TrEMBL record, chains A, B:
Record family assignment: Belongs to the iron-containing alcohol dehydrogenase family. Hydroxyacid-oxoacid transhydrogenase subfamily.
Enzyme Commission number, as recorded: 1.1.99.24
Family annotation (Gene3D superfamilies): 3.40.50.1970, Dehydroquinate synthase-like - alpha domain
Domain Fe-containing alcohol dehydrogenase-like C-terminal: 226-416
Keyword flag Oxidoreductase: yes
Subcellular location: Mitochondrion
Top class in the EC scheme: oxidoreductase
UniProt-recorded name of the protein: Hydroxyacid-oxoacid transhydrogenase, mitochondrial
Keyword terms: Mitochondrion, Oxidoreductase, Transit peptide
Species annotation: Phoenicopterus ruber ruber
Length: 419, 419
């Protein structure tokens, strides 16, 4: 189990110029998205770079919910710039794009599919050395500053997939909670749901000692190893913070305590799932995002339709945990209790229903769209959603309960309407 | 905040030969102590090295509670062997010795004092590259497999000190709880007390944002950064495990669940204190160990007198936390509650007394020697004990409450008798 370097504190972003000097960086690539390029987090970084005289070029063309095309555009920029260090300022979209740019610029002879997860890509192990990458997360969601994962939407196949390798994990994550203050309500909510699902899925994932095949050589083990006593600590801790602070962080942009705690929870849950893995909510979310029709979420300052990642994972969560609870009912009940359920008279065999109910109430309270139907899907889409889930076996096989295609259909169907 | 790689599981030691092959190691240095060289943990490593045909030399001359002389002896062996990887199988004594051997063999022109903590040594930053070191802890105590610290007894000065640098942190820690099964009772107890104090001290250490001076350049920040929201997670989690399992682990060598949990708690607390730091119990323990007279603890299969590290830290803990509670009484009360105190009617201003009392009961239940007097010290030794604490400012300055020499005298005096 490997864990990234993290620096935490209000205002610590101002040191980033010094960090880059310490790294001996002479040509820095600063990545962000168009919206963020006008906002305080990018400003804070620019000020520090100026103060320490760091030479840099800025790429602000990151696509929110990146695609193969948008990754390739960033990679082209990175190859041309011959950078010796990278800084990503943004949410998962920016950090993931920057990881990919660093990887392919450091491995210029590689084909794009080489490092993409099998069976969609070739899933080759990364053996080239990468440049240092400092990630400055501005959402409280993906925990991408702590993981070796970069996710994108493979347009041709209409499915999200990614690159997963310890090699692309950022060198340093700078968690400066001041950056969360500019997030509008729905971005706090959706990125917070991502934290919620990372915690719930990694805590309920197949235990590390039941995963098969278990490659006998440790070097071949996947980054996602199944739930284990160390990732459990992170998952539970993140879940407790979500239970205590997510609603406050969403409702009150001035609630610094709540926003700062969610910012840390995002990293904690990232460390948890980055080692244990996620399972069905994430596996099923990739086609939900990839097949998006015309949905345009509130508060996202972008011109294309998209299903925000956190929303795409949380909408199936009641159905998923009702389904998986059979296997570790105590853990499901414990999660429900942390999220506020009164379980004093609960029967263990109802654990799944109780957790599902708790989640539905949680989402209802936060005005979340009423299921997949509300974001544009109907029963007729289910076969395509199932088909898009099948290649996600890297995560779906970490579900504690194995699933057939019929099971997946039923889970999508049960997620059409929530309330 | 940086955290090591850890692999956890019963029997995972059998993979170590493969790990060394993966590292391309051709000349491995295996370090342990004389006692352990006859016991199952070393056996398991030897079997794996043989199975994978790993070429190695064994050094089993590690001193339990190492000294400058014993470090130098191991360093000599390492320099001569021209090793390309190290394996340490043992408790903190072995792992720390191996860290020092790797460091000085990788930096052959350095003087021994160069890397020793200031003000005793020169405290130079490590800039040379080290060889990979795999640590296989066999006690449930120091967490040395996760830290960049190596402690030794500086005989000339009669005081313990150490080397602290991220560079000497092991590449991988293999936590195989099977290794804890051979530990005799007092070794479980004393190493467990070390975990207890790491957790309590790092949880109550000066907060990271109140430490001064705070070097403006991040590269110059010490490894010990003060308590912070991330180390708090580890410290509290470790403390909960100690509360639940330490007594069981001590009393029943067959209680695998308890011993395995303590083995993990040791690493958790190590990650916590390795980033946050420890304070007075540890600062005062160094002269308690260094000035040892004739004390020979039960169950330690060695021929010199010594005060085991865990015992040397825990004996002052009631006095220390009664003293520090003024500053963060809620944290002290919370710790007392985790350790079993009923705090429903407690007053916050009694937090220190309550935690001290809880600790005394805890130690009494476990037949711990009745204070410093029971291990050979008297009032007449207090000036020397205080004098030996003064150079430990690297840790003592992390105490939430500053101390004068008189305060230190009073703390030693209060620790002469516990019950
Ligand atoms: N790498 C991983 O480990 C990992 C894990 C989960 C999800 N992801 C991926 O990350 C992406 C989602 O990332 P995300 O949820 O962080 O959001 P995002 O990066 O997609 O950003 C969403 C929107 O929020 C805006 N925004 C971000 N920070 C802001 C701030 N502080 N103030 C105002 N606006 C702000 C952005 O400009 C953007 O419009 C998806 O592609 C998802 O698949 C990656
Ligand atoms: N590096 C760090 O972060 C750190 C932290 C705390 C303490 N320390 C240092 O570590 C040393 C103490 O280490 P420790 O408490 O782990 O004990 P230790 O290494 O000194 O070993 C104590 C005794 O236990 C025996 N032993 C160890 N494992 C055994 C097993 N599985 N079965 C039977 N016998 C076993 C040893 O042979 C030895 O006789 C001290 O020098 C202390 O200052 C280092
Ligand atoms: Fe996610
Ligand atoms: Fe210790």
């Amino acid at each position: 189990m490997a864990i990234s370097n993290i620096r935490y504190g209000e205002g610590v972003t101002k040191e980033i110029g010094m960090d880059l000097q310490n790294l001996g960086a002479r040509r820095v690539c600063l990545m962000t998205d168009k919206n963020l390029s006008q906002l305080p987090p990018v400003n804070a970084v620019l000020n520090s770079l100026a103060k320490y005289g760091v030479n840099f070029q800025m790429y602000d063309n990151v696509r929110v919910e990146p695609t193969d095309q948008s990754f390739l555009d960033a990679i082209k920029f990175a190859k041309k710039g011959e950078f010796d260090a990278y800084v990503a300022v943004g949410g998962g979209s920016v950090i993931d794009t920057c990881k990919a740019a660093n990887l392919y610029a450091s491995s210029p002879a590689s084909d794009f599919l080489d490092y993409v997860n099998a069976p969609i890509g070739k899933g080759k192990p990364v053996t080239v050395p990468l440049k240092p990458l400092i990630a400055v997360p501005t959402t409280a969601g993906t925990g991408s500053e702590t993981t070796g994962v970069a996710i994108f939407d493979f347009k041709e196949l209409k499915v999200k997939t990614g690159i997963a390798s310890r090699a692309i994990k950022p060198t340093l994550g700078i968690i400066d909670p001041l950056h969360t203050l500019s997030m509008p309500e729905r971005i706090v909510a959706n990125s917070g749901f991502d934290v919620l699902c990372h915690a719930l899925e990694s805590y309920t994932a197949l235990p590390y000692n039941m995963r098969s095949p278990c490659p006998s050589n440790p070097i071949n083990r996947p980054a996602y190893q199944g739930s284990n006593p160390i990732s459990d600590v992170w998952a539970l801790h993140a879940l407790r913070i979500v239970a205590k602070y997510l609603k406050r962080a969403i409702r009150n942009p001035e609630d610094r305590e709540a926003r700062a705690n969610m910012h840390l929870a995002s990293a904690f849950a990232g460390i948890g799932f980055g080692n244990a893995g996620v399972h069905l909510c994430h596996g099923m979310s990739y086609p939900i995002s990839g097949l998006v029709k015309t949905y345009k979420p509130k508060d996202y300052n972008v011109d294309h339709s998209l299903v925000p990642h956190g929303l795409s994972v949380v909408l199936t969560s009641p159905a998923v945990f009702a389904f998986t609870a059979q296997i570790h009912p105590e853990r499901h009940l414990e999660a429900a209790e942390i999220l506020g359920a009164d379980i004093r008279t609960a029967r263990i065999k109802d654990a799944g229903f109780i957790l599902a109910d708790t989640l539905r109430k949680f989402l209802f309270d936060l005005n979340v769209d009423d299921g997949l139907a509300a974001i544009g899907y109907s029963k007729a889409d289910i076969p395509a959603l199932v088909k898009g889930t099948l290649p996600q076996e890297r995560v779906t096989k970490l579900s504690p309960r194995p699933q057939t295609e019929d099971d997946l259909s039923a889970l999508f169907e049960a997620s059409m309407k929530l309330y």
